[in-house]
Write a structure and sequence with these properties.
Helices cover about 85% and strands about 0% of the residues. It is mostly helical.
Length: about 110
């Protein structure tokens, strides 16, 4: 085979590869444009949220209890545990009451 045949084969391969890469690039470009439209919509929705967050300020940082009286800390922890148990009991009672009322509603 001559020089021109090999040149033609390689030219077809290079042109085919360029076509494939160009088609992939165009499809990615279309997707990026669609994403840009969605991102601009998201930006308009985020602006009020960011404004609200800057108005709210920083979060409350809990105070350290290292220098506090250990008995007071223990008492506070026990109070918190009792309140948590009480909330769980109230929730369980509400759920039981709701289930009982729904059981009698069925025909």
């Amino acid at each position: 085979m001559g020089f021109w045949v090999w040149f033609l084969i390689w030219a077809v391969l290079v042109i085919g590869a360029l076509y494939v890469f160009a088609s992939i690039g165009l499809s990615l470009l279309r997707k990026v444009k669609a994403l840009e439209v969605e991102a601009s919509k998201m930006q308009t929705l985020l602006e009020p949220l960011l404004a609200e967050l800057t108005i709210a300020g920083t979060a409350n940082v809990p105070q350290t209890t290292i220098s506090d009286d250990p008995e007071a800390s223990i008492l506070r922890v026990q109070t918190l545990k009792r309140e948590k148990i009480q909330r769980k009991r109230l929730r369980a009672n509400r759920l039981v009451k709701d289930l009982k009322s729904k059981r009698w509603e069925k025909p």
